[in-house]
């Protein structure tokens, strides 16, 4: 039923929000800045989406185009930009009218890849969940973030995590969700350490690769038209 779909998709979004908002770099700085007016308390006030920007270990925002390109290598589809809602984009990102004009003068238009102007974001990243989405999809996304954008060792703000878990447990009709294991160099406390092989679109490498170890380029894909299929060359 629609009610069950609502509960399921909201649970996925809240689970992802809880872990993503608690994820930290090795120096303790948060990994994500999430744009929401609440704490994902209820599906009545929060839809099945998580809107955010990723931050590096110095607190600087990582451009959404870079996140989008890396996600595509992991076969993860995200939407980026202002999502046809420039008013909300201005409000959540704190973009003034003067900054908006400067962005336009710099050549920024809807749908382009100009994600940062003078170090300030012009949009954000959004993950959306549907009735066919699973908790495994959420875990795959979180592991992607940890592997590609978190300065090791991966850490978690335990105080915030516990606070969000307590709020979740006290909410009506909440169910226990599976814990996530992020095995990119460091694991969460209590997580079983695993090694795994990561298969990307066009890239493949074994576990425990050192930063200086070589990779093999196997495929190149060209996307000449936005939203259309690729040519393999």
Automatic annotation (TrEMBL):
Residues 166-210 are annotated as: Disordered. InterPro entries: PyrdxlP-dep_Trfase (IPR015424), PyrdxlP-dep_Trfase_small (IPR015422). SUPFAM superfamilies: PLP-dependent transferases. Residues 186-196 have a biased composition (Basic and acidic residues). PANTHER family: MOLYBDENUM COFACTOR SULFURASE, MOLYBDOPTERIN COFACTOR SULFURASE MOSC. This is Molybdenum cofactor sulfurase.
């Amino acid at each position: 039923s629609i009610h069950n779909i609502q509960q399921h998709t909201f649970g996925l979004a809240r689970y992802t929000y809880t872990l993503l908002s608690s994820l930290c770099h090795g120096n303790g700085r948060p990994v994500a800045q999430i744009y929401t007016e609440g704490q994902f308390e209820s599906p009545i006030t929060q839809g099945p989406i998580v809107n955010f920007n990723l931050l590096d270990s110095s607190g600087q925002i990582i451009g959404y185009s870079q996140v989008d390109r890396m996600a595509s290598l992991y076969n993860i589809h995200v939407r980026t930009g202002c999502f046809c809602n420039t008013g909300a984009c201005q409000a959540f990102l704190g973009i003034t009218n003067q900054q908006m004009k400067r962005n336009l003068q710099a050549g920024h238009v809807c749908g382009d890849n100009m994600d940062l102007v003078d170090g300030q974001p012009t949009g954000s990243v959004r993950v959306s969940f549907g009735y066919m989405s699973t908790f495994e999809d959420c875990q795959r996304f979180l592991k992607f973030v940890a592997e590609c954008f978190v300065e090791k060792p991966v850490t978690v703000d335990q105080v915030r995590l516990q606070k969000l878990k307590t709020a979740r447990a006290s909410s009506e009709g909440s169910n226990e969700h599976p814990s996530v294991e992020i095995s990119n160099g460091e694991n969460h406390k209590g997580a079983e350490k695993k090694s795994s092989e990561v298969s990307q679109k066009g890239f493949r490498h074994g576990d425990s690769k050192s930063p200086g170890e070589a990779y093999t380029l196997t495929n190149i894909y060209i996307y000449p038209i936005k939203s259309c299929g690729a040519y393999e060359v």
